[in-house]
Prior knowledge:
This protein has helices spanning 3-9, 37-45, 51-54, 112-124, 182-187, 194-199, 203-206, and strands spanning 11-16, 28-32, 47-50, 60-70, 74-80, 93-94, 125-126, 136-143, 152-160, 168-169, 175-181. By secondary structure, the chain is an alpha+beta fold. It has one domain (3-206): Nucleoside Triphosphate Pyrophosphohydrolase. A 6-stranded mixed β-sheet has the order 2-8-9-4-1-3. It has a 3-stranded antiparallel β-sheet with strand order 6-5-11. β8 (136-143) and β9 form a beta hairpin. The mean pLDDT is 91.
Amino acid sequence: MSDKTQAMKTPIAFVERSCLEPFALPERGLRLDPGGAIYTSLRDHVAFAPRGPLEEDPSRKQLIPYIVVGDHELVFVTRRTRAQTEARLHDKMSFGVGGHLEVEDIAQGSDPILAGAARELLEELAMPAQWAERMVYRGVINDDTSEVGSVHLGVVFSLDAPEHEAVSILERDKMTGSWMTHGEVGAHADALESWSALLLGELPRFFQAT
């Protein structure tokens, strides 16, 4: 069985689109959630199903933690290689780290979203494990205008990491990574995957100078 076939059979987290209707999310954009009402609804409505059927079902939104690592000057940017499962994102640049929530994340406590975000962060990036506690929830990002976005919902976190030398890529066969200034990222806006493009203007708000 190929890795892709196995991935399509793996149970992953989703919520019914209907649980998002009270929040009137934008068709394409970021919804900041300072009070955490959307987050609470997502956490309380998490369910699991094999990934394959979910990829073809816009009535169910797969939850993807999307962690932005940076500081007030620089952000850690990755580029996806062709070794990744999701062919629709090959060669795209991103400053969001994350992936699907899995059944094992439930066992880590009452908040599978936060547990899964921490797991994904430390699976993709080399950094001190305790840094996962720095994650700050910001809101959700939605893009129903694309094939990929219509079946996914990004749960956005930021993580302040001024110790740049302590951050590097773990899955080097699947992505490359480097630090870029906010301005440099903006200059590559056309190469960014959809969610990163939508978050670009929020970087100064996420990482304010102290």
